[in-house]
């Protein structure tokens, strides 16, 4: 179904924008800005974005999965061939992953580990490439039908919605907006945004000590993207991702919502960590690290709640009730008002970079998902490893607090169990509400494994190796990208014939 709300006549009419915002795809979003503001930011010319059609299709896909307790299980596509073959195989979403772009399609071609430090057009460029190829293949099918062919492959929907990695949004709000715009222009149906600090991303899944922004700052990021979508009249979906499970730090202690996870020093004998390090400063990094380790070992690090509980157990409930919803500064003032004299200092525990210490885990991930539900379509926690009971807890608590919430999960390939348990895993997660599940690197690794066989065989046996490992098995399996039609032959033939007079 093509979104119809944004016609030329009412494109700049705030009333029509408000009407669009009350439709099912939009109604759950909380917008602190007005339809009048959005109208004022719009182009004088009504815009139509194919990405909106793709997003509408994606929403329908996810809603149908949610209703049935099934999921879209997908992989990161490396290139137009895998994207095409995924459509053949019946995938209903395609993922574009950061590491694939950083190692293969970085906009500056400065390849390397995924630190999300590539120029921000990198992932949109990849989406554009895949989407334009999908459009081309759609045309190939249409011209083949036009000339009377009737084969099943022509019924395959080539326009599988693409979901892409927007990392942290690559900067401040205006950068977030420009990035979102590139994704819409490129044809992305959905993008995911995480709550890490730009420039601090860690490589790989297990690396602990990620640095988060306060939850409100992450919401601002989601809102910047949503505002851009609204300005463009785009239906594109937003996937909230939190890295709270692997977090070790937070840039600011300002947020009441983050306070339960901020860690402080309870040992009054210690000078602040940074002062201790600089007092013993030496040129050796390992010595500085040893000083830090020693400091941490004697700091009695804990959350403020834990500090009050252990230092004033009798007053704990009173304190808990009085400090509800307060940030660190307020909660410490409350402790003073209650005469608790609690020994706890999160300033002293700040890292050398000035970051506050944060206790990562499933609970802050749940809290962040709940806090972001009004600003996103799908909620995702990036886990360091697959721990089934945590995934169950995440799903249960998030859905209790946000009825109907749809969830995502990066399968990352570390699921343990027998083959049949591993096979059943995605179905199990689907029943919990994880409607979108993906293996980001399966396309990249699968391409490597796939091409390795002919590479070896041709080296050993020349053309015979090619016949044995590419041509014959390719034909037997009906690999459609080996066909002349995939290269666009029917479109070229039809257009050339159409304009040739003799
Ligand atoms: C999903 C992810 O953002 C990606 O870009 O593919 C990465 C993948 C990975 O490092 O395994 C992530 O989860 O951070
Ligand atoms: Mg990524």
Automatic annotation (TrEMBL):
Residues annotated to bind Mg(2+): 165
Keywords from the named record: Lyase, Magnesium, Metal-binding
MF GO annotations: isocitrate lyase activity; metal ion binding; methylisocitrate lyase activity
Cofactor(s) listed: Mg(2+)
Cofactor annotation comment: Can also use Mn(2+) ion.
One record GO biological process: carboxylic acid metabolic process
Reactions catalysed, as given in the entry: (2S,3R)-3-hydroxybutane-1,2,3-tricarboxylate = pyruvate + succinate
Presence of keyword Magnesium: yes
PANTHER family listed in its UniProt record: BIFUNCTIONAL GLYOXYLATE CYCLE PROTEIN, ISOCITRATE LYASE/MALATE SYNTHASE
Family listed: Belongs to the isocitrate lyase/PEP mutase superfamily. Isocitrate lyase family.
Protein name, UniProt field: Isocitrate lyase
Organism: Saitozyma podzolica
């Amino acid at each position: 179904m093509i979104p119809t709300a944004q016609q030329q006549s009412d494109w700049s009419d705030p009333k029509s924008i408000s009407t669009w915002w009350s439709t099912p795809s939009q109604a759950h979003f909380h917008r602190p800005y007005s339809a009048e503001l959005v109208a004022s930011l719009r182009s004088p010319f009504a815009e139509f974005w194919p990405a909106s059609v793709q997003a509408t299709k994606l929403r329908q896909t996810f809603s149908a999965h949610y209703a049935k307790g099934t999921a879209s299980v997908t992989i990161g596509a490396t290139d137009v061939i895998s994207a095409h073959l995924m459509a053949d195989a019946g995938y209903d979403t395609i993922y574009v992953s950061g590491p694939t772009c950083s190692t293969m399609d970085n906009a500056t071609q400065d390849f390397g580990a995924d630190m999300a430090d590539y120029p921000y057009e990198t992932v949109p460029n990849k989406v554009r490439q895949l989407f334009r190829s999908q459009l081309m293949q759609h045309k190939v099918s249409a011209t083949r039908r036009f000339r009377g062919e009737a084969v099943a492959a022509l019924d395959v929907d080539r326009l599988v919605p693409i979901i892409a990695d927007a990392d942290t949004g690559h900067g401040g709000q205006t950068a977030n907006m420009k990035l979102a715009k590139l994704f819409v222009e490129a044809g992305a149906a959905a993008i995911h945004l995480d709550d890490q600090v730009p420039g601090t991303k860690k490589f790989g899944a297990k690396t602990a000590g990620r640095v988060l922004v306060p939850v409100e700052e992450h919401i601002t990021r989601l809102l910047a993207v949503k505002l851009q979508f609204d300005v463009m009249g785009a239906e594109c979906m937003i996937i909230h991702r939190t890295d709270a499970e692997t977090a070790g730090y937070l840039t600011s202690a300002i947020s009441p919502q983050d306070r339960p996870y901020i860690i402080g020093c309870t040992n009054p004998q210690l000078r602040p960590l940074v002062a201790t390090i600089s007092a013993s400063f030496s040129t050796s990094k390992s010595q500085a690290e040893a000083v830090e380790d020693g400091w941490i070992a004697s700091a009695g690090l804990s959350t403020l709640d834990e500090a009050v509980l252990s230092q004033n157990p009798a007053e704990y409930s009173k304190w808990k009730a009085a400090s509800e919803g307060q940030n660190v500064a307020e909660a410490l003032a409350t402790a003073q008002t209650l005469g608790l004299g609690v020994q706890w200092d999160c300033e002293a525990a700040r890292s050398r970079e000035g970051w506050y210490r944060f206790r990562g885990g499933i609970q802050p991930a749940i809290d962040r998902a709940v806090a972001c539900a009004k600003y996103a379509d799908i909620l995702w926690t990036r886990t360091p490893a697959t721990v089934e009971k945590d995934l169950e807890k995440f799903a249960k608590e998030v859905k209790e607090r946000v009825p109907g919430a749809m969830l995502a999960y990066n399968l990352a390939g570390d699921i343990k169990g027998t083959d049949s348990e591993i096979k059943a895993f995605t179905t199990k997660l689907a029943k919990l509400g994880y409607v979108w599940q993906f293996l980001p690197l399966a396309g990249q690794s699968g391409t490597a494994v796939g091409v390795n066989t002919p590479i070896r065989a041709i080296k050993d046996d020349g053309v015979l190796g090619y016949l044995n490992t590419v041509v014959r098995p390719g034909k037997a399996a009906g690999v459609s990208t080996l066909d002349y039609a995939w290269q666009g032959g029917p479109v070229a033939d039809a257009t050339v014939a159409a304009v040739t007079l003799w």
